[in-house]
Amino acid sequence: MGKVDVLLGLQWGDEGKGKIVDVVTPGYDIVARFQGGPNAGHTLEFNGKKYVLHTIPSGIFRDGIINVIGNGVVIDPVIFQKEIKAIENEGIKAAERLKISSKSHLILPTHRLLDAASEAAKGSAKIGSTLKGIGPTYMDKTGRNGIRIGDIFEQGFKEKINFLVDKHKQMLDFHKFDYSELPALLETWFEAIEQLKTLPVINSEYQLNNWLSEGKNILAEGAQGSLLDIDFGTYPFVTSSSTMCAGACTGLGIAPSKIDEVIGIFKAYSTRVGSGPFPTELLDQTGENIRQVGREFGSTTGRPRRCGWLDLPALNYAIMINGVTKMMMMKADVLSGLDTLNVCTSYNVDGKSQPEIPYDMNVATIKPEYQNLKGWKQDLTQITSETDFPEELSSYIRFIEENTKVPVALVSLGPDRKQTVIR
Ligand code: GDP
Ligand code: IMO
Ligand code: MG
After folding, report:
1. Cα–Cα distance for residue pair 114/172, rounded to 1 Å
2. Atom of ligand 2 nearest to the CA of 273
3. Which of 41, 94, 97, 121 is the most buried (most CB within 10 A)?
4. What is the helix, strand, coil percentage profile of the chain, to 5?
5. How far apart (Å, rounded) are the C-alpha atoms in residues 39 and 300?
6. How far apart are CA 138 and CA 338, in angstroms?
7. Catalytic residue positions, numbered
8. Low-confidence residues in the chain, pLDDT < 70
9. For atom 10 of ligand 1, which residue has the closest CA?
10. Residues 91-114: pLDDT tens digits?
11. Where does 188-294 show beta strands of DSSP type E?
């Protein structure tokens, strides 16, 4: 019997999941995305080139690996088509390495317009969505109005789309939102659907479980991060899917008993893009330095990411709800040169110190309580072995391990595949 390892983000997304999936993929037979959609931007770097994936799993560049887009994912056929083209331009036959669940839901152009209309209506309370239509598509899914990939092969597909688009237009009218560009958007969208029809659409829950029976190993690739989870994130400033480990079960049709390792990815500091609470946010020059050195600008939208110190109450919460068995720490190289590194070890909520995060981080007055650790001066980007770590970096990792009770199995010291130290 094969096994499933789940790899997911423990913070607010952009932890470096794409890089790590690419690094560890050779140890698996299949990589499967289980939730989210083109709101994700997963960056990979190797041979001096950089690639950003939105819908396609990050195992796509490795020979002999099958990449599955699971039922929990939502797909924008236009974005998906562009991604496939970009990969094929590199001489990789993406279509031959991909399988798509017939049960994944389709993002329509009107879902994107509704996303924009909803954000505009919220004004300053907006979520800071990537505006890829994620929320409205999952709303139609749970509202039982959604359209799935399998439907594209059915008689009456066009009528089904038109019916839903008409409903969306009424909603856009309610918002007084201009949709004059819709006919052109729909034309492009239907063209992309024709291309989707040429790709292998399968009942992936059967296929994945058959592969497991044959002894094959699967890596489930998460998108976003635990603090953006629809249930456990900083609601309502979250995404619309289950970004946690349980999402791999519902998003792929894999039983919890098949899951082996739960690999949690985190940055040596914290970032967040979009609105919402961020207790350890740095609004000063240090935050700006981290943003510049870490090139903290959104992979999907280009927006500057908010930066701050590592937050252990939030990290421990993510470890708890996911049952994380090992962690991988990213981007420690970005912190080189800082004299002191602050790590938040507890929250002071309304004058009381606590290790837990409060029910509503939006309304609670949270003062992070910090432990100050000594920084390191060296450039870390050329280090290939733990024996060359500066003592301060080893202490930083030890401190995290002691305060989370989870081993840090890998340390990433640069965006390239090769800038990775396994411990
Ligand atoms: P993902 O969404 O979790 O896959 O992460 P993103 O790709 O959105 O953001 C991570 C960014 O950090 C990308 O630009 C990566 O190329 C880069 N990156 C990943 N690991 C490291 C690292 O260890 N050091 C540095 N400096 N950059 C890294
Ligand atoms: P990856 O997979 C970081 C954030 C958005 C916004 C909120 C809701 O690259 O880590 P949505 O588009 O889902 O309606 O946006 O979630 N967000 C992400 N932030 N990384 C991501 O994905 C994200 N996907 C969504 O910025 O605050
Ligand atoms: Mg990203």
Report:
1. 7
2. 26
3. 97
4. 35, 25, 40
5. 7
6. 42
7. 14, 42
8. none
9. 16
10. 999 999 999 999 999 999 999 999
11. 201-202, 218-221, 259-267, 270-272
